[in-house]
Amino acid sequence: MIRLTTKNDFEMIYEIINDAAMAYKGVIPEDRWHEPYMSSKELQEQLEDGVIFYCYEENHCMLGVMGIQGKENVDLIRHAYVRTQQRQKGIGGLLLEYLIENSTKPMLIGTWKEASWAIHFYEKHGFFLVSKEEKNTLLPAYWRIPKRQIETSVVLVDKRYRSLNHSEMQL
Length: 171
Prior knowledge:
Layout lengths: L1 E3 L5 H11 L19 H9 L3 E7 L2 E11 L2 E9 L8 H11 L5 E6 L3 H9 L3 E2 L2 H11 L4 H5 L1 E5 L1 H5 L8
Parallel strand pairs: 4-5
Antiparallel strand pairs: 1-2, 2-3, 3-4, 5-7, 6-7
């Protein structure tokens, strides 16, 4: 079952993010890795900045989370994580499809350049990598991340974004 999370789910969201993010250890640049991957304070800041989390549950156990954040004329997919022991079971795909179906805006996703599994996952679900030049425009326009993270990340977009005349986008 997919549902909107509540403030009572904070600790479980935090736990899932930091469990699943271990996949990035040794993959992303060492200067971008820290433990925990996302602190409680950072998660709280994300919520305050408008990230809305949905979760996938089975038998009242939260197995995965994915956030969405409305930014002007697009929606951003943020913090998509599935518990390590529950990967490869379609949970991330169900969450992503749910968010896609319930969004009317073009969607953007940022992830680490070296996280090939994440890029492949999003491509499998109909997203497309943008050029380095476009990425360097989109990341600072819609995300608040350090320059070093921009250098080591990629952006993927959905077909709604690709079909727009980019001059219509208000960057």
